Amino acid sequence: MGYTPPDPPPFGWLGIVLSVASLYMVLLVYANQRRDDELAELREQLTLELALLNEQKTAKVISLLEEFRRDIPIMDNREDPQAKAMAQPVEPERVVEAIRETRARAERLDTSGA
């Protein structure tokens, strides 16, 4: 056709350029995936903190309702063990420990089943 190709066969330079470009794309994908994983972990932590805060608020409301019920003279004073148990706020350390135990158990199951 009258022109010289920039990289005649066996396309040595073209292969190198494509390899470098694919390596660059792999690194970009890996960096984005790592960032997404970090954001997902932060979202999980925030969700756990909000759940603990909501649980503490609910425990306080139940505690106040039980106190209000005891203070009303027209209500019978009775023991409600379920309300008493629900009025106790959960300890965040116990929740974190339970999560760690559950993850460890899941990892043991994954390794034994694989």
Largest sheet: none
Q: How much β-strand is present in the residues?
A: under 5%
Distance between the termini: 59 Å
Q: Count of helical segments? A: 3
| Shape by Cα distribution | rod-shaped
Quick structural gist:
It is built from three helices and no strands. It is mainly α and 114 residues long. It has one domain.
Descriptive account of the structure:
The chain is mainly alpha-helical and 114 residues long. Helix content is 77%, strand content 0%. The chain has one domain (12-106). The protein has three helices and no strands.
Please supply descriptive tags for the structure shown above.
mainly alpha, rod-shaped, 77% helix, 3 helices, 114 residues, 0% strand
Question: What topology does this entry show?
Answer:
Layout: H1 12-71, H2 81-86, H3 92-113
